[in-house]
Design a protein that fits this description.
217 residues; alpha/beta; Rossmann fold; five-stranded parallel sheet; 5 strands; SGNH_hydro; phosphatidylcholine lysophospholipase activity; signal
């Protein structure tokens, strides 16, 4: 009886610690896999990867009715997470990949240098190109969320460096959504954000749509 109890306890502890060791966003990735099994994604679609600005764009297909879109944004993710889960996130056959990520990298560490975030993006870009050497790859500029105003200097520097990098790459574009989110005085329009001053309203997404449309394959 004691041996059975000991075996049971060992199994319980093993299960507990195996669950505890699962990396951040593991469940999000499993959810994506389940979705793909239940409804196999189309080939030659536009793949969106990144953080909550994509996650919360649940009706993105309504904004681009003539496009086939796979949305694989997961809230809170950083470029480090995109790199970690690259094999899973790139397990599709898209004709174009659009990335929105980097904002949370700075929020996670407000002392983070822009160069670190840029290097993280370059690493992810290289992972994409290793699998898809010729498809269109675009990066949406980091938005200047009012709740993260103290981080804007690093974000602006990162945007500038990523824009310069993308300009040199084939079949790549830097999609700058900065101006469209500003008023005539160059101030960020707070009414484009919901109460948390981080995530966007439908009007904000509508403005993104206008900027993104010319780049969409």
């Amino acid at each position: 009886m004691k041996k059975m109890l000991s075996a049971f306890l060992l199994l319980t502890f093993a299960l507990f610690f195996s669950q505890e060791k699962k990396p951040m966003f593991w469940q999000d990735i499993q959810d994506f896999k389940k979705l793909d099994q239940e409804n196999p994604p189309a080939k030659d679609a536009i793949l969106l990867v990144g953080s909550s600005s994509f996650t919360k764009w649940k009706d993105v297909t309504n904004y681009f009715p003539d496009k086939t879109i796979i949305n694989r944004g997961f809230g809170g993710s950083r470029l480090t997470d995109l790199n970690y889960y690259a094999n899973d996130l790139l397990n599709y056959q898209p004709k174009q990949i659009i990335i929105y990520c980097g904002e949370n990298d700075f929020a996670d560490n407000d002392k983070l240098k822009a160069k670190v975030v840029v290097d993280r993006f370059k690493t992810f870009y290289k992972k994409i190109r290793a699998k898809f050497p010729n498809i269109e790859v675009d990066y949406i500029s980091i938005k200047y969320s009012p709740s993260r105003e103290k981080l804007w200097p690093q974000m602006k520097e990162a945007n500038k460096k990523i824009a310069a990098f993308m300009k040199k790459q084939p079949n790549s574009e830097f999609i700058d959504i900065t101006k469209v989110m500003e008023d005539s005085n160059g101030n960020v329009r707070k009414e484009l954000f919901v109460e948390d001053m981080l995530h966007m309203t439908p009007e904000g997404y509508q403005l993104w749509t206008k900027v993104m449309n010319p780049y969409m394959k």
